[in-house]
UniProtKB/TrEMBL annotation:
Pfam families: DUF3991 (PF13154). This is DUF3991 domain-containing protein. Residues 112-175 form the DUF3991 domain. It comes from the Bacteria. One of its GO terms (molecular function) is DNA binding. It comes from Hominenteromicrobium mulieris.
């Protein structure tokens, strides 16, 4: 859990005298300070504590961590009764709408790339072009590979550059339909 600086400051401002009494601990007055019966070398005064046998002291959060074995967040919560902000959940962006790139009037560059550079059979390439499962996009003349669901609706598209090694899935594509 994450705590704000204000919450941490409130926890460290807690009177240790009051806190120990609410925990059922016995304090013995010793001048202007109180000794904790459980550890007679430990004195508290307001929101500060000091353990004389170890020359160690501090504020309420340190005290709760040291003597009650609590973690930092647990100590702050124990002292203030407030919960931290917790882990902020990652907010997922709303899904992007899927739109296929515009078709080019011809598929010359796509055919050249797939047949000459990739070594595919021209008849096979033309069959995929006719079915619409591959085509050349109008903007950059990349090859677009289309994945469809069982009803034939395009659900996925991957773009492959014909002149450079560019590769990209179209925004909103569902990879379960490659």
């Amino acid at each position: 859990m994450n705590y704000t600086q204000a919450q941490i400051d409130r926890a460290n401002a807690v009177s240790l005298e009051d806190f120990l009494r609410t925990q059922g601990e016995t304090l013995i007055k010793s001048g202007r300070e109180y000794r904790w019966k459980e550890h007679d070398s430990l004195t508290v005064r307001g929101n500060k504590w000091f353990r004389h046998s170890q020359s160690k002291g501090g504020y309420p959060i340190d005290f709760v961590m040291e003597f009650y074995g609590k973690s930092f967040p647990e100590a702050v919560q124990m002292l203030t009764g407030e919960s931290g902000e917790g882990q902020t959940e990652a907010t997922t962006a709303p899904p992007t709408a899927f739109h296929l790139p515009l078709h080019n009037r011809t598929a010359d560059r796509a055919i050249q790339y797939l047949c000459e550079s990739r070594g595919l059979n021209k008849t096979l390439v033309e069959a995929f072009l006719l079915s619409g499962d591959i085509y050349e996009d109008a903007k950059r003349h990349n090859v677009v590979f289309v994945g469809r669901d069982r009803s034939g609706t395009p659900r996925y598209a991957h773009v492959r550059g014909t002149a450079d090694p560019f590769r990209q899935d179209i925004a909103g594509s569902d990879k379960s339909y490659p």
